[in-house]
């Protein structure tokens, strides 16, 4: 398990612990060790990518949202695994694996796709030059 510190936008420091066994899971705790949230990834198609299947960073309260934690976890998981990260599309369907997007997740996933931390989804726009018709 990889543990490291991260300085949030609010000036507080948290610990990010990433478990690399089988699927990847990342837990976040505050300075006192209290859990703040978790992101869970599932290894897909013989190791070709990791799918974000569950995420919450407001275990104690919403004050920890929008602090850069999700972005930093994605960055670190991609770096450790060497794999691209995918996420479900915001299509209104409940996914059997729990990966459907709720709450702040649609906006978060869209932003992370723009930044290249999450691979484009099925509904993302592709330029004509990029599409192999």
TrEMBL record:
Compositionally biased residues, Basic and acidic residues: 90-99
Highest taxon, organism lineage: Bacteria
UniProt region (Disordered), positions on chain: 84-105
Record protein name field: GNAT family N-acetyltransferase
Species this protein is from: Microvirga brassicacearum
